[in-house]
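Reopening this one. Same input as before:
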Amino acid sequence: MHDAKSIAEILKRDKRYIRIMEQLKSKFSSYGESRGKVSINNATREECDAAAEIICPKVGYEPPELSFSVKAFEKGLSNFGNVSLKDVLESYYGITMQTNAEHAAEKSEQKKVFENGVLTLYNRKPCSKWLGEMFSSRSYGYKTVMAQYSDAPDEAEKLICSVCNAIDSRYTSDFEPIGLPVLSAEITGNSHYFDQKETAGKLLISAFGFLSEKTGNSSEEIKEIYYYFGIEPDSITSACAMLGVRLYNDNGVEHHAFKAFADNGEIAMLSSANLTNINSADCDKKTVFAVENPAVFMALVPVVKQKGYAMICTSGQLKMCMIKLLDMLVKSGCSIYYAGDFDPEGLQIADKLISRYKGYIHIWRMRIDDYLIIDKTEPISESRMKKLDKLNDEQLRILGEIIRNEGKAGYQELLISEMEEDISSL
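Same output, byte for byte:
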């Protein structure tokens, strides 16, 4: 009689059993016991004869079909020795046979050790709130972490630690303004590590989004998340035009360069970098006109300048510097009159402003009557129309339905004369 090791050696020397043993191994791993059926659809005559030499009870097999139960093969092995299929497989492959359930349990335990290790490392630190929620709810970047963990656990730990260190550094510095590349370089030595398109950048947004209670589902929401934590993703190229706005530092001293622009009634271009040491903003008459379109902005400059009001231009979606500026103007008690285009994007901007600056923002020349009196030629696609479904303000929702029914966009350039009259009569 043979033991499992000697039987395994006999089978290994016989090439006819290679595919048979592979399937037996697969079935045992799947069920954790001698169960299931081996099926080889393109079996050779040699493989059929090899199976017949072991399987009990004896059965003849004809190629190309070879099918038998795992139990029958194990029973046949018992004729050569008091052995189990598991023992033979372990000797044959030189491994410890593990069922899928055992393998899954082991991986689950390893994952728990990984998670607990990270939680322990950052216990009581600002990032721990995010870590705990991410692991418990399996959200806020959990899939990103686990995808990395499956490929390389060590890299996953490095990824989480980098994000945690970035979070903690923001709280430690009291959100003092910093450029995203600078933060990235300080934490990792790589100025592009937290770029938005990179895995670490996406995870950082997920973590910051949870901590700031913002979703980060759009580019504008991502900008708001960065703004919340004092991070400048791009402090130079994102600029806005302004007229008659005054900027002040922490000591209440007016910024000399922008003071000259305001005093002379000249247009100034403001970037987030310019706001680094600015603590407040104001204007002479506490009234600010905000327009979406640069052409409308330029057309209204003369009348705004004449009346001594202030004006800013969003140039489409709200930039970081624009959000900061509006925050400071509202904090100073300024009233904002916003005029945007009659399209889904224009209404979205207005909706965000209403939500953020309730009581200080006045939607200007965006009434239903204004939309109906202007010529409209550009059709709006269905994909863009879906943006109207997300409006929160009731009046804007009603306007959105009319725009949806009309199917066409309207632009503020066609209301410039009416806007000039509004400003003159204010």
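So the earlier flakiness isn't reproducible anymore. For the record, The chain has 20 helices and 14 strands.
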